[in-house]
UniProtKB/TrEMBL annotation:
GO terms for molecular function: DNA-binding transcription factor activity; transcription cis-regulatory region binding. It holds the Pfam family Peripla_BP_1. CDD domains: HTH_LacI. Keywords: DNA-binding, Transcription, Transcription regulation. This is LacI family transcriptional regulator.
Length: 330
């Protein structure tokens, strides 16, 4: 056999019909095991690669999922979504699908771009991230019939769209419990300004652990809030230290880096500062952090878009707490 192998040339070499060879690729369950193995062996021997265009025509699918990429205001914010993009790309590729990534100015522009991609590229679905309590995207996309799955719950909205999320409250509860078990007397929390669904959920887990341990915070004096900036977090951590806080759970690794600097300046045990997201910076600098199961999130997203009937509509996954020394790794 010379030249680039095709379905027809493989069929001719094996003395089989074109349809039989096609079924081996697209409907292997329709063939007898011995016939299927003959075709697969010949495909491996010749290095045949199925035509993407032909498969799209046959299945009436583009084999494309859309995914919006966002700018990161600092080096840590958005790391989880970047990891998710990589994981979804890998899992989609394993199923013969690819990601079409795009940028958008805001959520309304994201919806408009997805609708254009549906019209021009016939995308088979979309993965949404960074959900909020006032999110317009799931409702508008559902009404247009575009398959979707969201990383992030609806945050108070009664929505029927599929989503997967990580239990941030459970992660912060576990971190607080473990800090208390390790001898901390007053575990505080450093989070974002009130009103963020993700941030408020993480605060709730910290409170649950304090109540269960009988270590009540007097009037939220152990709770600090600021924007996601290291310098602000450092100043806020010093304020919390003035109220006797000797350990901190933080809503992000960025906040934890600022808090750890304050603990170091106060001569406190820096291993008692726990961040959230377990970013590469956390691992590199010895920062304890709460790790999200990004690979499981990606599995759910891809499986849901491929076969909605075989996958639950929603799923909440549990994170893990990774404790480290608190000091820079050299």
């Amino acid at each position: 056999m010379s030249g680039r192998p095709t379905l027809s040339s493989i069929a001719s070499a094996l003395g089989l019909s074109h349809q039989t060879v096609s079924n081996a690729i697209n409907r292997p369950d329709a063939l007898r095991p011995e016939t299927l193995q003959r075709v697969l062996d010949e495909i491996a021997r010749t290095g045949y690669v199925p035509s993407t265009a032909a498969r799209q025509l046959a299945s009436k699918r583009s084999r494309l999922f859309a995914f919006r990429v966002r700018p990161a205001p600092n080096g840590l914010h958005g790391q989880v979504v970047d990891n998710l993009l990589h994981a979804v790309t890998e899992r989609a590729a394993a199923m013969g699908y690819h990601l079409l990534v795009f940028a958008a100015q805001d959520d309304a522009d994201e919806v408009a771009q997805i609708e254009r991609l549906r019209a021009t590229s016939n995308i088979d679905g979309v993965v949404l991230t960074d959900t909020t309590s006032q999110d317009i995207r799931p409702g508008r996309l559902t009404r247009t019939g575009i398959p979707l799955v969201a990383f992030g719950r609806p945050w108070g909205q009664d929505s029927s769209h599929p989503w997967v999320d990580v239990d941030g409250a459970a992660g912060c509860r576990m971190a607080t419990e473990q800090l208390l078990h390790r001898g901390a007397g007053r575990v505080g929390f450093l989070g974002w300004p009130q009103g963020s669904g993700v941030g408020d959920d993480r605060v709730s887990g910290w409170r649950q652990a304090l109540v269960a341990a009988g270590a009540h915070d007097d009037g939220d004096r152990w709770l600090g809030r600021c924007l996601d900036e290291v310098s602000l977090a450092r100043a806020m951590a010093h304020d919390l230290r003035a109220d006797g806080v000797d350990a901190l759970v933080c809503a992000s690794d960025t906040l934890a880096l600022g808090a750890r600097a304050a603990f170091r300046e106060s001569g406190l045990d820096t291993s008692r500062v726990v961040g959230f997201d377990d970013s590469p910076v956390a691992a590199l600098t010895g920062l304890s952090s709460i790790r999200q199961p990004v690979e499981q999130v990606a599995d759910f997203c891809v499986q849901r878009l491929l076969d909605a009937d075989a996958v639950p509509r929603t799923r909440i996954l549990e994170p893990t707490v990774v404790f480290r020394s608190g000091d820079f790794v050299t």
